[in-house]
Amino acid sequence: MRQFSILLVFVVAFGGAAVLYEQESRKVKGVLSQITDLQAKVGDMQAEINRLNAELESVKLAERRRPNLNGIASRVLKNQPTAPVSKPTPAQQQRRGLVAGDVTTATPAIRGRGEPAEDGEWAKPTVDAEAYEPQSAEEDTAVVDPYQ
User: Fold this and answer.
1) What is the pTM of this model?
2) pLDDT tens for each residue of the chain, 148 residues long
3) CA 63, CA 52: separation in Å to the nearest integer?
């Protein structure tokens, strides 16, 4: 009987230890799975950070090649001397009249490579419709109206 009671104490002790071990083991497994999930998330975040850093570097490189308008404007403003802006007086505004450059005609600014300096069509003055009809009537060519 004495052996039975010792055996019973051993069984209870080992059983309790096994239950405690199982509970702690489950806790450890849960913590390890959480650590594994967090490591996977950290890896994903690191890949995203690397992608964003590469994109940032490419944008910086593109900005070095082609500066943006804000940068150009700020450079122009920094390099521009600061002179006080004066408004023209009414007398100055009235003196400003019609300037010859306001009414003179100019030849086209864009020319082809092989074109001469004076283009025939542009060098001639414009023709009124009344003057154009008698010229075309002299040719005696029948003009067919495409809309009839």
Assistant:
1) 0.36
2) 788 889 999 899 999 999 999 999 999 999 999 999 999 999 999 999 999 999 999 988 887 777 667 777 788 788 766 555 566 565 555 555 655 555 556 665 666 666 555 555 555 666 665 665 555 555 556 667 767 6
3) 16
